[in-house]
User: What shape does this take?
Amino acid sequence: MNPPSDYKLSTTAYYDTHVVEYCRNTVSTDMSALYAPFLCEIPAHGRILDVGCGSGRDSLAFLKAGYEVVPIDGSPEMVTATSKLTGTSARVLAFDEIEFKREFDGIWACASLLHVARRDLDAVFVRLTKALKPEGVLYFSCKYGDAERFEHGRFFNDMNEDLLKSLILHHSGLEILDLWITDDVRNERRGAQQWLNALVRLSRERGAEV
Assistant: This one.
């Protein structure tokens, strides 16, 4: 499908409207198995950008582990929820508004970039690459598949291994460290769903250029 130009508005509106339900269903989910490979690449007390912070669950976990965290989300209601949960000042910032320059040891984009259409994803990756320090790492995940679709007002860009590898090849200096599939930890109440997870690193040479 070719998503309409305003697909981002309906997705943001969904999260603003369903903030209580969404936070209730996600804030206590155990994500430790996904944190481990990401945090292994981050120096102690390193700086992490939580892109699409949602309920604040992941930002809180990173803060408790001793990292400096900057949470951002395009949904004002989710930013309020994160700020309340973590005691930090999360920021309302959409993907296409990110303008950090070489500030982060790691970027955590768990189930957030899946809301970016394929036609817009390269431009977002350019912004994320510029936000990373040399040898910084980016974790991101999306629902496994190959469709672009709407689900209850939210836009989804499902990806498989080939689509993801093709995306990374467009960005010189990014190297895939790991690529793996996991089952949704909430499958028992949502039905079967798999996720594609990726961990990529920005080379020192490329990081010095951006």
Observations:
- Residues 7-209 form a domain with the Rossmann fold fold (CATH 3.40.50.150).
- The longest strand covers residues 132-143.
- Strands lie at 47-51, 68-73, 91-92, 104-109, 132-143, 148-151, 154-157, 174-183, 194-202.
- The two ends are 33 Å apart (CA to CA).
